Amino acid sequence: MKPKEISPEHQELMIEIGTRIKELRKAKQLSYIKLAKQIGISRNSYNQLELGIINFQFGTLMAVLQYHGIGLEEFFKDL
């Protein structure tokens, strides 16, 4: 099943989420390929997540946050 396109009113937020996810990964000096494998998604999907161009599932976000050991509140506090 192909993910839905992101509606224009949510594009900025999705880009901010992707940027924050990328910052977390880079802080641990991981490649996006390695992290994608660790959380069980394709490298293409993970790359699109960081770019903010994929309408990801909540479970995917939770897997990323769990990997980094942070909760939703901490993740979204500055967005």
Write the layout of secondary structure elements.
Blueprint: H1 11-27, H2 32-39, H3 43-51, H4 58-68, H5 72-76
Helix pairs in contact: 1-3, 2-3
Describe the structure.
It is built from five helices and no strands. It has one domain (10-76): 434 Repressor (Amino-terminal Domain). The relative contact order is 0.18. The protein is 63% helix and 0% strand. It is mostly helical and 79 residues long. The chain has helices at residues 11-27, 32-39, 43-51, 58-68, 72-76. The mean pLDDT is 90.
Helices and strands, in order, run as HHHHH
Approximate strand percentage: under 5%
CATH topology: 434 Repressor (Amino-terminal Domain)
Strand segment tally: 0
How would you characterize the largest beta sheet?
none
Q: Which residues sit in consecutive blocks of at least 5 with pLDDT less than 50?
A: none
| Oligomeric state of this protein | single chain
Portion of residues within helices: 55-70%
Jot down its keywords.
79 residues; mainly alpha; 434 Repressor (Amino-terminal Domain); 5 helices; 0% strand
